[in-house]
Amino acid sequence: AQSVTQLGSHVSVSEGALVLLRCNYSSSVPPYLFWYVQYPNQGLQLLLKYTSAATLVKGINGFEAEFKKSETSFHLTKPSAHMSDAAEYFCAVLGNNQGGKLIFGQGTELSVKP
Amino acid sequence: NAGVTQTPKFQVLKTGQSMTLQCAQDMNHEYMSWYRQDPGMGLRLIHYSVGAGITDQGEVPNGYNVSRSTTEDFPLRLLSAAPSQTSVYFCASSYRTGSNQPQHFGDGTRLSIL
């Protein structure tokens, strides 16, 4: 069965510091992987997706993620955090059963300190 | 360009009451789904539909019913509300089953069961 694990339910960084949110997946087939962001009282917005075209994926708002098959990881990074980046971030893998459902990690809440 | 529209945004129910959460999309998407979001648990799939007239159960279907009579609408029914169903509910849609096209999310319905 496919699964996603996000390491760290809360991450706190200072404004201007590197953001690193960790995601590891389990999949028996080449996966489609996604990062979503959720701002308070809003739905989920797509940050970026990996579909096997390139291992380094660039998304919106300066975020990027690197697919590493050997480590089964898809960590999300941003070189310099902004206050507006404070939100909850979800990693997800597209399942190969149940009609292709998205399987989500438990989420990581990012706080940005001034 | 409305995307995915959920109504109501907030609702308080008493135990045992029934209600329907509405979801509509205007993107002619084939795939629609309902998730619930609970703290520390990410998003869990309740029910999904791969097209009009076709629905199936997700990870946590008990206590919920769905139908898909049109491509645009995918209502979620709570048959007899229980406090354990207090949650934030998200409807999502995507172009095609199992595709790598991202799912588009509504803004959510925040439901409290007293």
Give the DSSP E fraction of chain B (strand runs of 2 or more residues).
over 45%
**Secondary-structure element series of chain A:** EEEEEEEEEEE
**Strand tally of chain A:** 11
Please trace the helix and strand order of chain B, writing H or E for each element: EEEEEEEEEEE
Question: What structural class results from the helix and strand content of chain B?
Answer: mainly beta
Percentage beta strand of chain A: over 45%
The best one-word shape of chain A is globular
* Total beta strand runs of chain B: 11
How many strands, which pairing sense, and closed or not: the largest β-sheet of chain A?
6 strands, mixed
Largest interface: A-B, 24 and 26 residues
Give me the secondary-structure category of chain A.
Answer: mainly beta
Mean pLDDT of chain B: 92
Radius of gyration of chain A: 14 Å
Describe the oligomeric state of these chains in a short phrase.
Answer: heterodimer
Question: What does it look like?
Answer:
The complex is a heterodimer of chains A (114) and B (114). Chain A is mainly β. Chain A has no helices and 11 strands. In chain A, β4 and β5 (44-50) form a beta hairpin. The model of chain A has no long low-confidence stretch (mean pLDDT 90). By secondary structure, chain B is mostly beta strands. The model of chain B has no long low-confidence stretch (mean pLDDT 92). The chains are: A mainly beta (114), B mainly beta (114). The A-B interface holds A 9, 32, 34, 36, 41-46, 49, 51, 90, 94, 96, 98-102, 104-107 and B 4, 31, 33, 35, 40-45, 48, 50, 56, 58, 90, 92, 97-100, 102-103, 105-108.
Summarize the structure.
By secondary structure, chain A is mostly beta strands. Chain A contains no helices and eleven strands. Chain A starts with a strand and ends with a strand.
Secondary-structure map:
The complex is a heterodimer of chains A (about 110) and B (about 110).
Chain A: E1 3-7, E2 10-14, E3 19-26, E4 33-38, E5 44-50, E6 56-58, E7 64-68, E8 73-78, E9 87-94, E10 102-104, E11 108-113
Parallel strand pairs in A: 2-11
Antiparallel strand pairs in A: 1-3, 3-8, 4-5, 4-9, 6-7, 7-8, 9-10, 9-11
Chain B: E1 4-7, E2 10-13, E3 19-25, E4 31-37, E5 43-51, E6 54-57, E7 64-66, E8 76-78, E9 87-94, E10 104-105, E11 109-113
Parallel strand pairs in B: 2-11
Antiparallel strand pairs in B: 1-3, 3-8, 4-5, 4-9, 5-6, 7-8, 9-10, 9-11
